């Protein structure tokens, strides 16, 4: 009977979102759209901080605009160089860290999104854009895409981590927060005790969205969580060996209570890395050949209060990243402890 239940769960969590005419199944086509709803009952009352949750790094960067100005997150030297059209084309190769849209990432099982935002200098309105070197889509468009998915999948919970803000004054922040309210409404989860947040308590209140806001502005709104509640230590290395050592060290130092934890399983290019692989870009120079080794580390992990929680990656579709992280939850033993918000 247990084998039958496991088989049914795999069917629910591994359906194909979009069929491939060749009959084969790529990582981007595996659908984990309802994986949280499909978790076994004994995990419904565990704190979300104890679950293994897949996330993406620079989640919005599947599209950047070569024709827009270089973003305010770049140095003056880069801005001057970018006046040459070829420079922007090369920048795009190093700014893009994902292939999948928000919707496609959600269908693949991604539930944590790393977000960097900016106003666009010279714009008369208060529009806010995603940014990573070059400007991406409007934040409003991304939020609406995410909300559409959540409406169709009412038991899925997401983390939106607004952790970098550029060229934004108080008016821009108010505009952004208003857009967040308009997009998600009653789906927004007010900040409360991390340990009290379980799938069951969120389902009971129809909450689906946790917004983390790394700016003092969060104090003005009850649904904005402070950035300190979701630390994301950054290894800043091109070495897989050093990255894994860093991930292990920061996990061992993880606070047992009071916050979520993001393990950034990503490599960061140096200037010389970019110079050597200028035309190849981030994916071909650094990510493609190293991602399998990083995934091997993920497979050895266990979630829990002192284990992994949220794990992020670049190009989440290149390997079976989301499904690998989700599967770690099978290692969790039954825990019926339940705290109320």
UniProtKB/TrEMBL annotation:
It comes from the Eukaryota. Keywords: Hydrolase, Lipid degradation, Lipid metabolism, Transducer. SMART domains: PLCXc (SM00148). InterPro entries: PI-PLC_domain, PLC-like_Pdiesterase_TIM-brl, PLCXD1/2/3, PLipase_C_PInositol-sp_X_dom. One of its GO terms (molecular function) is phosphoric diester hydrolase activity. GO terms for biological process: lipid catabolic process; signal transduction. Residues 42-214 form the Phosphatidylinositol-specific phospholipase C X domain. This is Phosphatidylinositol-specific phospholipase C X domain-containing protein.
């Amino acid at each position: 009977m247990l084998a039958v239940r496991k088989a049914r769960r795999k069917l629910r969590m591994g359906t194909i979102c979009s069929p491939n005419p060749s009959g084969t199944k790529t990582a981007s086509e595996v659908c984990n759209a309802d994986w949280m709803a499909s978790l076994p009952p004994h995990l419904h009352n565990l704190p979300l901080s104890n679950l293994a949750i897949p996330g993406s790094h620079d989640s919005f960067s599947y599209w950047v605009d070569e024709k827009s100005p270089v973003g305010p997150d770049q140095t003056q030297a880069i801005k001057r160089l970018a006046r040459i059209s070829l420079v922007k084309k090369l920048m795009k190769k190093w700014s893009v860290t994902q292939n999948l849209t928000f919707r496609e990432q959600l269908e693949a099982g991604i539930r944590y999104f790393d977000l960097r935002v900016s106003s666009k200098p010279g714009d008369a309105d208060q529009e806010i854009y995603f940014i990573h070197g070059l400007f991406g889509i409007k934040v409003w468009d991304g939020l609406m895409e995410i909300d559409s998915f959540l409406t169709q999948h009412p038991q899925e919970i997401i983390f939106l981590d607004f952790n970098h803000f550029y060229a934004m004054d108080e008016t821009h922040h108010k505009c952004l927060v208003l857009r967040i309210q308009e997009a998600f409404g009653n789906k927004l989860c007010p900040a409360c005790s991390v340990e009290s947040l379980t799938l069951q308590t969120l389902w009971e209140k129809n909450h689906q969205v946790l917004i983390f806001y790394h700016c003092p502005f969060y104090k003005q709104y009850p649904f904005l969580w402070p950035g300190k509640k979701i630390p994301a230590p950054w290894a800043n290395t091109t070495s897989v060996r050093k990255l894994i050592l860093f991930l292990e060290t920061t996990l061992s130092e993880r606070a047992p209570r009071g916050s979520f934890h993001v393990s950034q399983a990503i490599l960061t290019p140096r200037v010389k890395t970019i110079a050597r692989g200028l035309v190849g870009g981030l994916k071909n120079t650094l990510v493609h050949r190293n991602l399998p080794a990083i995934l091997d580390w993920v497979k050895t992990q266990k979630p829990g209060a002192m284990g992994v929680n949220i794990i992020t990656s670049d190009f989440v579709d290149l390997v079976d990243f989301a499904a690998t992280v989700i599967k770690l939850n099978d290692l969790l033993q039954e825990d019926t402890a339940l705290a109320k918000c």
